[in-house]
Design a protein that fits this description.
alpha/beta, Aminopeptidase, Alpha-Beta Plaits, six-stranded mixed β-sheet, disordered N terminus, Acetylornithine deacetylase, EC 3.5.1.16, AcOrn-deacetyl, Bact_exopeptidase_dim_dom, hydrolase
């Protein structure tokens, strides 16, 4: 077992494994503040003479961090990672999720794969970046709330775009086993609130059931997805190869024999690059206003449906002769075509006009799982890879 990090000393050199142990020890679930880990990272950078900038969340309880090592010139590399992790409650862990534990060539701990492993590699190699000397800069970007629809990154990327010379490439180090991922779906998250009118269930003709109308709207999601499935292009590289619509949470009702006055549910739409989740949102709104609400309001005018856009994550689109793709293919030797259906912060960087790919250590199959782990060999490969990139920036 590796000793957990219990303080914030940043005076000693740390290997990637030792750095990962320290990062894992911070329980940075998205429902909590990440300021402890951000302060540790800031102290680590300061101890090596690197200044960093914090971009705070609106409530001041969380922060993004970005820093530049090397000259303020164009053509540098951004190493991007997030600091938050998903909860461990309800999962059957056989190790302490907040203590990095080594077993059989693997390092177990929450966030070891997603994605503190990449963060640890970048931070552990800061002394080598400083020693350099770098002729083109390394920009480090660490965000909050990636696991909650990438809420933190937009403000950080906007601040970086205002203050930094344009980089040549952004490497978002999500776990891909160093496959160079050049595309992922765009998504929106929605909260639908249905307001009905409560009466005794024996006189449902006089009431408006929020639950039954919510069910109709949830079924619309599945009906549209079924249509997409039937029309899917089998050559589409995404899995699944069509836009998906999903309802993940639902609640409502007053009593078993009462027509419900309120119901709500969360849903998400994940669109392939040739489609827009906003277009699906427009279709959803039209179905509500033209089909569902008129029937509700004909009985009780005060009933209705409200849709709230909770979050929006832009997709990552494959670039034509992209600098980031070319760079990482050269260093990894990967020439395959890779896209993923989950979202990352890569689309946010790309939207800022920066060439971006997703490429990092670990297996996405471990993300969010009990006994999450990263293989030691993946860290070792990442250390070699980052050293090669740093070496090129010094040339």
């Amino acid at each position: 077992m590796l000793t957990p990090f219990l303080g914030r000393s940043t005076t000693c050199p740390l290997s990637p494994r030792e750095m990962l142990a320290r990062l894992v020890a911070f329980p940075t679930v998205s429902t909590s503040s990440n300021l402890d880990i951000i302060n540790f990272c800031r102290d680590w950078l300061n101890s090596h003479g690197v200044e960093s900038t914090l971009v705070m969340s609106p409530d001041g309880d969380k922060a993004n961090l970005y820093a530049t090592i090397g000259p303020q010139v164009e053509g540098g590399i951004v190493f991007s990672g997030h600091t938050d992790v998903v909860p461990v409650e309800g999962q059957n862990w056989t190790t302490d999720p907040w203590t990095l534990t080594e077993k059989n060539g693997r390092l177990y701990g929450r966030g070891s794969a997603d994605m503190k492993g990449f963060d640890a590699l970048v931070l552990a190699l800061v002394p080598e970046m400083v020693k350099g000397p770098l002729k083109r800069p390394v920009h480090i970007a660490l965000s909050y709330d990636e696991e909650i629809a990438c809420r933190g990154a937009p403000s950080m990327v906007a601040a970086m775009a205002r203050s930094l010379p344009k980089p040549a490439a952004v490497i978002v180090g999500e776990p891909t086993r160093y496959a160079v991922v050049t595309g992922h779906k765009a998504s929106v998250q929605l909260r639908t609130q249905v307001t009905g009118y409560a009466v005794h269930s024996s006189r449902i003709d006089q009431g408006v059931s929020a639950v039954m109308n919510a069910a109709r709207l949830i079924a619309w999601h599945e009906d549209v997805m079924d249509e997409n499935r039937r029309q899917a292009d089998p050559a589409n590289p995404f899995e699944p190869p069509y836009t998906t619509l999903h309802c993940g949470m639902v609640a409502g009702g007053n009593a078993a024999n009462v027509v419900s006055s309120s119901a709500w549910f969360f849903s998400d739409i994940r669109a392939i690059p040739t489609e827009s989740p906003r277009d699906y949102l427009d279709r959803y709104e039209a179905y509500i206003r033209e089909v569902v609400e008129p029937r509700m309001k004909a009985i009780r005018p005060e009933s209705g449906v409200a849709v709230e856009l909770i979050a929006e994550v832009p997709g990552l689109r494959p670039e034509t002769d992209g600098d980031a793709e070319r760079l990482m293919r050269r260093f990894t030797g990967d020439n395959g075509t890779h896209v993923v259906s989950y979202g990352t912060e890569a689309g946010i960087f790309q939207r800022a006009g920066w060439s971006t790919v997703v490429c990092g250590p670990g297996d996405i199959a471990q993300a969010h799982q009990p006994d999450e782990y990263i293989e030691i060999s993946e860290l070792e490969a990442g250390e070699r890879l980052l050293r090669r990139i740093i070496g090129e920036l010094c040339a």
